[in-house]
Fold these 4 entries.
Entry 1:
Amino acid sequence: MERKATRKVNVGSLTIGGKSPIVLQSMNNTDTRDVKATLEQICRLHEVGCDLTRVAILNMEAALALKEIMKESPLPVVADIHFDYRLALESIRSGASKIRINPGNIGDASRVQEIANACKERGIPIRVGVNSGSVGKDMIAKYGGVNASSLSESVLQSVRILENLHFDNIVVSIKSSDPLLTIQSYRMLSERIDYPLHVGVTEAGTKGEGIIRSAVGIGTLLAEGIGDTIRVSLTDDPVEEIRAGLRILRSLSLRNGGMRLVSCPTCGRTLVPLIPLAKRVEDAIADLPYDMTVAVMGCAVNGPGEAREADIGIAGGIDEFLLFKHGESIRKIKSENVFEELMNEIHLLGKQQIK
Ligand code: SF4
């Protein structure tokens, strides 16, 4: 797919935009003042494939704690600030990799100018964004409600505030909890600016609903070449956001490697308890460090053939499974041993990959 060319923005060791690999991000839900808990969560996010994380800076203690976090963090960290420009300045001094502000709620231009100057001095970008809950009343009146026009015009106001201060190291977001409105808004914005875009469906919900809404919104835009960094917002452990984001990126071949599960929907031919087994395998392989497709299929008649692209798999029979690799039958395994033996085979193959 052809990705829209955007400007390059450096965030710590990462590059966002300019056709660089899509950056996958999340946001900590720890109290930023609690350095230990925040760092532990950052390390867990890093282990499952997160590229960039964000922390909320609610007060001066949090801005100061960021200094300790930055010393140990394996990931670049974005400082998220509302209202108080002094928190932004302290976070910049603490070594934040990027600042997320809404220039409209920071106060008069001299305060935004101070933040822009401090960011410029250290080469730190600023993300500006609106979501459907923060569109200005003037924009709602002018464009007849919260829609793609009022959302994109609102965020462009923030962009212009920074541009007027001669600051252009910018990432832009424009989120809604409605996937369709999100898609329309980013399409419109992408036509009008070439700053890198942070794409997400905000307040998407809990894991079941939220992943679907995010996959529709983020996935549609990425398939059109729009988006340079993504965040899946879930009411859950942030680690789940990264797992979901990786699945979206892998579905569109925007991220290679990792584990993929292929499993059949089951039908009248299925004579083994396939559904709980597939779920168990999915959980067990989720964070393995290999690049592999694993198939869990209901029958030996169609299973190996339907999962031809799988590196390794099992197909159900009566009280037993057939183990297959790359579509070739290898051996039969008793039902009661199938999970353990399949996992052993996955590890054997995986260790050969990373030798
Ligand atoms: Fe049915 Fe076999 Fe296809 Fe699974 S693989 S859906 S059991 S035919």
Entry 2:
Amino acid sequence: MKLIITGGAGFIGSHVVRIFVNKYPHYTIINLDKLTYAGNLQNLQDLEQQPNYRFIKADIANRENIFKIFEEEKPDSVIHLAAESHVDRSIRNPLEFVTTNVIGTVNLLDAARSIWQPLDSAQGGNCFYHVSTDEVYGSLGDEGKFTEQTAYDPHSPYSASKAASDHFVRAYYDTFKMPVKLSNCSNNFGSHHFPEKLIPLCIHNIKNGKPLPIYGKGENIRDWLWVEDHARAIDAIFHNGKVGDTYNIGGNNEWKNIDLVKLLCDIMDEKLGHAAGESAQLITYVTDRAGHDFRYAIDSSKLQTGLGWQPTSDFRKALADTAQWYLDNEEWLNNVTSGEYLKYYEEQYSR
Ligand code: NAD
Ligand code: TYD
């Protein structure tokens, strides 16, 4: 099996690459990544000497180059994670999200289609696995959960671009019999998460005594899943999921943003030897995000009953371990928060 994993230098991708390289030594794993601000090869330093792992630096939006790589490498399967992934950035620059998330996905589909002939989804042993988000389903009120049947209703340029890419993947299954699988997952947390997203941003800011920006009243709700659980789900779906099917992945773990940040403050107070309540004093309410989705919650019963996957139950421990990882990896934090990102952070925070 020769497998291209796109976006493998990013947050979730690096966890997926690590599982596949270590668990399947007989597979050849190619990590294809452009190394944007969010991609960092330091995330995979421990794999550099593994004989079944290789890295290719490439932009999925460069169609000609992607076709050339597929022609040369002839991968049997693709797990596609490369994307622009931050909602706030998508509000500032929607076109970048169209370019990578929509055009990049279509380029990969076409490149795979050009080498996987005949394309009969039942026979070839090929798989194009598209990794997506629950944000395509839009926003929930106080009740209910997203199922695989929930109609798409994206609100941000990020979720609109992911929704478009999901539609293309399904359209290629229907039109060309492309052997595809999809999953839509809730908010992830864990090590190697770029510190512009809520959890790593707060850990970083608590450590540096900086304000913790809470959008609006902090009452928006997210369903948090440990990244290792997501990577295990991707492994299960890639190997045992049904071709043409979609699987929702979620933590069954809903938190209001403000409650989550307060929990994180308690954990950090303990770890840093602060007095109880000290970190929470950094909480600062700021202008709400435009089009801010109120609530996400995932029904992942199809994945749980069909493929026997379960999320980790001890959220507090996983969150505390995540905080500890950031405290132990100061060099990583310093590297990713320097340069280009710092400029963005200053702009973002001074609004
Ligand atoms: P990330 O931003 O941490 O990493 C994205 C990776 O893609 C980076 O390594 C980056 O260099 C690479 N990339 C970006 N543009 C590229 C391009 N044009 N060509 C090649 N590589 C490119 O993202 P993440 O949080 O790890 O998310 C990975 C995937 O999972 C995305 O598709 C995202 O939509 C999806 N997802 C994320 C979450 C979450 O909570 N983070 C939840 C559900 C689904
Ligand atoms: P984020 O981590 O950006 O993920 P997403 O927007 O994909 O859900 O944000 C998680 C929640 O936290 C979301 O409701 C927005 C909110 N948030 C803040 O309140 N302050 C922040 O600085 C950030 C980055 C997010």
Entry 3:
Amino acid sequence: MNVKARAKINLSLDVLGARPDGYHEILTVMQPLELHDKMKVEALATGAIEVICSHPDVPSGPGNLVYRAADLLRSECGCSMGASIYIKKNIPVAAGLAGGSADAAAALKALNKLWGLGLEERQLLQAGERIGADVPFCLAGKTALAGGKGEILTPLPSFPGLGVILVKPSFGVSTARVYSLYDSSPAGPGPNTGAMVSALEKRDFEAVAALLNNVLERVTAALHPEINEIKKALIEAGAAGAIMSGSGPTVFGLCRSPGEALSVAARLELPGCRVIVNETV
Ligand code: ATP
């Protein structure tokens, strides 16, 4: 079975506080992108789980989030089947685009079918939550307001067809490190999540672009000032708005259409960065 694992961006991201379980309480508007990893998932009667990933920085085998997802699903359901999973990585890694979570979610869905487990969406969401905070969103696969540690999802109207220019600097960042620095840095102004939600409900592109906001951006930008330079370059090149996604370091610019995004990307001069022109779905 061939499946797609889609990347996400955060149109707004607020951190409400640290939780006793080590996670943070967040409030974020998440939007899936057309950009995806391609996965080939097959059931194996031998009981072995084999995960191979095309990217040199991502482990194959038990270190891969997909392996953990398959193993957890199997033991939860008392299933003795195995799986062979190949991941062709297109989503930049350790980039704030939930690539690993997307792969894990796609594997859960595919294995539920291939192993004939018959789990309902609610049960898959519960399994996904145990693998990672972004996995439930990736399983649902639709624009949503995410609360809790990211697993409490309220569907929002999607805004498909917007142009997105993703700019990934050459370095990655650790999500855990960004959150820990966030905790020790003074609080700053947060996003207006309610206004972002109503901008999406009204399909008001100008408002969505103006309301892009991520409280983690200043933390990652303090470590890597390139973040601010990329934002500035995107706006100067004609993006309607620009913000860092998740814990970074990918910064994205938003445009009314993919065509406009292509023109903006053509004007960018950001040596060392990977630039991907994409769109919302
Ligand atoms: P998030 O936005 O959810 O914080 P991210 O986009 O910042 O995630 P990922 O690309 O998911 O980060 O990768 C984070 C780490 O997880 C990497 O160091 C990577 O080696 C590891 N990893 C394990 N499995 C995968 C996978 N299938 N795809 C990507 N990374 C994986």
Entry 4:
Amino acid sequence: MATPEARANPMLTPNKIGITKKEYQGSASTLCTGCGHDSVTLHIISAFYDLDIDPQNVAKFSGIGCSSKTPAYFLSGSHGFNAVHGRMPSVATGAAMANRKMVNIAVSGDGDTASIGMGQFIHIIRRNIPLLYIIENNGVYGLTKGQFSATSDKGSALKKGSTNLLEGIDLCLLALELGCGYVARSFSGDAKQMLPLIKGGLSHRGTAVMDVISPCITFNNHEGSTKSYKFVKDHDQAIQEIGFVPSYTPIDVDYEDGTSKVVEFPNGAKITLKKIERDYDATDRNAAFKVLHEAKSKGELLTGLFYVDPNTRPFQEVAQIVETPLVQLTVEQIRPSKAALAEVMESLK
Ligand code: SF4
């Protein structure tokens, strides 16, 4: 039963594993007041708290940029690695291979991911390393004073007036092309949509990509920007209503009228997808390509879960990595026997 202190302050109410929401926080943010990234941080804290995940079992990764500073602002009791620019996926891949038991989350930006880190982004998806990869996408390099990034939309304008003449990279389309089994887009200010998407991504057995439009209040929040608060609020079209149901909660969804669909993850958790206006099946990869290409050509901003395949095989399984964290293996377990080495030598003759 909640104590009077906890009733007065929800941050002090413990979850099912006895940890308060306050304990899922990190250090105080040093970002500009109003930065979209701080909202994403709050949603991440809520998701981990709601899912009763012990921060000690979490590994968080980031690269360089305003967004990559944010893992310091959540789950201070977890493991973290702030990698060099664009190289976070390599570090996350190594960590995930060395320890299959951790819950992995990566936070990067459009600069860190879509330019210097593009090669690494491609290969972490191709390998299907289990982690939730959030891109806090604001279309500019905030840390270096607001130049266009590779995800800036063609025709969008900088604060000082110059126009972007190049096509923006759609990270959701790219992730789909690479075979990603969980592809979503959301808006930092939309807690209702962000929360179930984060929880679903954390339940996915592979790389889950979430492209989150997260406005830069200082350099890209003006008229002419396609990543400003106003533009997103005016143009956001959610393709479905999303819910998340933990594995321990039974649900009763009406399948008959075609308005809802339930996708179940191997761990028993479920995502519920409720039709809003359009007919959309998030388990149909071709439909995801179609809707995203159409949106791009029309200049529409679609958000929601574009594609989910809950039964993908993570790379550790493909590579037959043992379930035991490598650090816990004994020397006898990791060192090949004399007979095994002799067999290898013989096979090479
Ligand atoms: Fe956020 Fe932009 Fe400030 Fe960076 S410069 S902290 S992205 S508002």
